[in-house]
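Our preliminary data section would be incomplete without showing what the modeling component actually yields. Below, a chain of 307 amino acids is followed by its predicted structure, encoded as tokens that our downstream tools consume directly.
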Amino acid sequence: MTIKNIPLRDLTIYPKRLEKSDNIGIVAPASHFDLEKFNKGIDVLKIMGFNVIVPEEIYQKKRYLAGSDEMRADLVNKFFADENIDAIICARGGFGSIRILKLLDYELIRNHPKIFCGFSDISNLLNVIYHKCFFVTFHGPNILSLANATEKTKDSMFYTLSDYTKAILKPDKPITIKAGIITAPVMGGNLTTLCHLIGTQFLPSFKNHIVFLEDRGESLYKIDRCLVQMKLSGCFNDVRGLIIGSFNDCGNMDDLYGLVYELFSEYGFPIIAGFEIGHDNNNMTVPIGLLGKIDTYIGILSFDENN
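Predicted structure:
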């Protein structure tokens, strides 16, 4: 059987769930970080009951990056290979993940599946690793965002990484853009970051998936431009459903929802908005690659590996 960079459900691997006292390794695949906020985020993980492994290399700087491309990629490879590391969480997003995509050892990573978590610029890694290595990754807080995270955000992260096959996301105010119920594997992340993969060998296939998108600080016309570019590139062909997460500081949300309806009215899949995923006060952890179900009539995204 030939496998082409499109995960099949019967091939998807479920990483070991986290337990208290497990070892979490910290990597910095993108930008360097504020040390005070970093240490506060590390303390949050320790309070949760985890052992945290912080390598010395992580404190390096190269312009706006957390060290050279080779060092940042080597650390990701090293922590995946290390049998003493149970999970990997990224220090922050910012920029830089796209620079290390060609330097990652995907065969090594595939042979050592484990929880890998982050968001924002880390969306590149989450989706590329899922598609190339066939195991579930996690769109959730980085270390810096944990520093001042809400209890809801921290609880979502802890319980999802501990038992992600039963995760449920239910917004306080779900917004149905196109009604429907659909079950499919879930993937997605930061809109701008994913859009930048178009034209590269690393653009993952969204086919037969529920896709979630989020962003922050982008004008409506920039969001329009990204969505249209992805649409014209065929990214949304054969997508099963669309979830609109947080678009914090992106202008009037009614205008955004109207834009989404306008751009996707020709498609048959359901679309629901209002989910606390991404850059906002609450950032719920979402398993990427796990079978999920959206039901716009009750406003819910639920996960169950037995669906």
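The first helix runs from residue 35 to 48. DSSP finds nine helices and 14 strands in the chain. Preliminary results of this kind motivate Aim 1 of the renewal.
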